[in-house]
């Protein structure tokens, strides 16, 4: 059996077993889904300022990345602080297989949570507006194809950085990622959600960016060494 | 077989391992001794290929493990950390590593090891709920799950109760004897090393200060020592005063009615006439067999003086 798959399966199982992290992340995702669904269907000043397509387009990426951000640390960073990574690096699994397996597991869990949040958003918005809200084809394509690739690219790059950097640098990196993500989810999302027409061009650009980023991460893995990881352990 | 040839590892200006050489053969239990910071863990990491040597080589079966990941299928490792995942159960942990190491007949092997380590009744509990001793036992089971030919252990019985320590010792001896396994052991526990290792290397500040069988090390370093048991009511201080006047005495350590005297190398100790001449009654005088601890401390102190 492929070792990346073995690692991915184990990380997936472990993420699901970590109930507190899972529930907290899911809670955050659902919170934003509810807030945005309320705004979508609110009467008054907010009504009409954001569109269903625009909201789903931006929120699916933002929430996906936010979920990935909160889970990556449990899979990459924690293994370094606990020093378990040394045992894993001593196994027949190569560094690339380890990185790929972990990236796949976090991407899958983060994507499932983001998708769940989007379904909740659509359901609440449909109930409140008493009409079935269905996103356009580019947005559906975006949610099904581009979003998981984008999440994978983020996890791949962030995981790579967590493996390569020391503890202090990792904390700083986490802080630097968190601020724009949180700001995006709280305020910027409403502005971005105001884009009423999501075309195939938007979707294509996001997918292209995601593919480029994931390729960059896969390329950069070759420069990561076990020595770098071992000498930056907590 | 492990070959360490002119191995040096520098971290910027710090020399962690300084031109060390040794070989370990199949079926041998080889101990690596040294104070904290002597270079033991760096050596094990270099052998595993987790670190790249600055100079020299660390080879397993003639190849560096860093460039031959598949060779790692035949190497078992138990480092300071047990390598276990707290959110997974004991069985899930073993299953994971069994898959990574391509273990055939997984179920049978895991069941056997869980029975052997006495963890069968807790195998479906999360490892996070295990005691330190249970984790170490499971870590050891994990390390030998794939029946490796080479086993590298870093402080395998640190923090374990005496019963588990004995179990670990017996297991190590059994693995070396029954399976002709090469076992490389980093340890602070000199008593443990003395019981199970046939050869040792002693590191100090990254350098090899001794590398030989325990028998040879005892022979080479032997500062003869005697333990004198004074008769009841005899003042130990008077005996110490008399003994300190003898030629070639290195150390005198009184302990109740017993006094241990260590002489210089090649001296022929005979403290009895002097004690009797001073009117001190002696119950027993016996030559002491040098423990590994004595040998180790002597070598370390000698190197420090130089």
Explain briefly what this protein structure is:
Chain A has 234 residues and is an all-alpha fold. Chain A is 80% helix and 0% strand. Chains A and B meet through helix 1, helix 4 and helix 9 of A and helix 2 of B.
Give an account of the 3D structure.
The complex is a heterodimer of chains A (234) and B (306). Chain A is mainly α and 234 residues long. Chain A has one domain. In chain A, 80% of the residues lie in helices and 0% in strands. Chain A has nine helices and no strands. In chain A, α2 packs parallel to α5, α3 packs parallel to α6 and α3 packs antiparallel against α7. Chain A is elongated. The two termini of chain A are 32 Å apart. Chain B has 306 residues and is of the alpha/beta class. Chain B folds into two domains: 212 residues, Rossmann fold, CATH 3.40.50; 67 residues, Alpha-Beta Plaits. Chain B is 35% helix and 27% strand. Chain B is built from ten helices and 13 strands. In chain B, the strands form three sheets. In chain B, strands 5-6-7-3-8-9 form a six-stranded mixed beta sheet, sandwiched between helices. A four-stranded antiparallel beta sheet of chain B has the order 11-12-10-13. In chain B, α3 runs antiparallel to α4 and α7 packs across α10. Chain B is globular. Chains A and B meet through α1, α4 and α9 of A and α2 of B.
């Amino acid at each position: 059996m492929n070792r990346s798959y073995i690692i991915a399966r184990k990380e997936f199982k472990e993420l699901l077993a970590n109930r507190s992290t899972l529930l907290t992340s899911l809670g955050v995702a659902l919170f934003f889904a509810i807030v945005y669904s309320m705004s979508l269907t609110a009467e008054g000043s907010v009504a009409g300022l954001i569109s269903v397509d625009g909201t789903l387009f931006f929120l699916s990426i933002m929430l996906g990345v936010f979920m990935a951000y909160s889970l990556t640390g449990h899979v990459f960073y924690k293994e370094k602080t606990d020093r378990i990574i040394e045992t894993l690096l001593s196994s027949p699994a190569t560094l690339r297989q380890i990185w790929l397996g972990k990236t796949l597991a976090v991407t899958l869990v983060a994507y499932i949570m983001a998708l769940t949040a989007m379904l909740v958003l659509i359901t609440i918005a449909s109930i409140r507006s008493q009409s079935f809200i269905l996103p356009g084809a580019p947005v559906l394509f975006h949610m099904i194809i581009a979003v998981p690739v984008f999440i994978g690219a983020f996890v791949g790059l962030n995981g790579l950085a967590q493996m390569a950097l020391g503890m202090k640098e990792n904390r700083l990196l986490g802080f630097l990622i968190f601020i724009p993500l949180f700001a995006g989810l709280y305020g910027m999302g409403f502005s971005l959600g105001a884009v009423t027409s999501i075309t195939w061009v938007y979707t294509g650009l996001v997918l292209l960016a995601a593919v480029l980023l994931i390729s960059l991460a896969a390329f950069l893995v070759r420069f990561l060494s076990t020595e770098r990881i071992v000498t930056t352990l907590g | 077989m492990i070959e360490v040839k002119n191995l040096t590892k520098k971290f910027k200006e710090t020399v962690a391992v300084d031109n060390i050489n040794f070989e370990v053969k199949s079926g041998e239990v080889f101990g690596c001794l040294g104070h904290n910071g002597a270079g033991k863990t760096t050596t094990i990491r270099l052998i595993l290929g987790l670190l790249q040597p600055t100079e020299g080589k660390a080879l397993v079966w003639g190849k560096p493990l860093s460039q031959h990941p598949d060779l790692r299928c035949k190497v078992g490792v138990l480092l300071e950390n047990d390598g276990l995942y707290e959110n997974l159960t004991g069985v899930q942990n073993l299953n994971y590593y069994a898959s990574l190491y391509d273990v055939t007949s997984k179920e049978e092997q895991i069941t056997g090891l869980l029975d052997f380590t006495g963890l069968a009744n807790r195998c479906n509990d999360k490892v996070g709920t295990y005691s330190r001793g249970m984790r170490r036992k499971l870590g050891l089971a994990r390390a030998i799950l794939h029946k490796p030919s080479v086993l590298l252990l870093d402080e395998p019985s640190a923090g374990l109760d005496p019963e588990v320590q004995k179990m670990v010792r017996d297991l190590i001896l059994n693995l070396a004897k029954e399976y002709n396994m090469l076992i490389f052991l980093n340890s602070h526990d000199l008593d443990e090393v003395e019981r199970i290792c046939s050869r040792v290397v002693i590191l100090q500040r990254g350098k090899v200060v001794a590398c030989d069988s325990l028998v040879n090390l005892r022979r080479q370093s032997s500062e003869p020592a005697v333990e004198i048991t004074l008769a009841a009511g005899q003042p130990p201080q008077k005996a110490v005063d008399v003994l300190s006047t003898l030629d070639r005495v290195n150390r005198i350590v009184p302990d109740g009615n017993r006094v241990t005297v260590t002489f210089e190398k090649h001296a022929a100790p005979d403290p009895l006439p002097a004690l009797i001449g001073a009117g001190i009654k002696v119950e027993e005088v016996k030559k002491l067999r040098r423990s590994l601890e004595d040998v180790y401390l002597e070598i370390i102190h000698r190197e420090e003086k130089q």
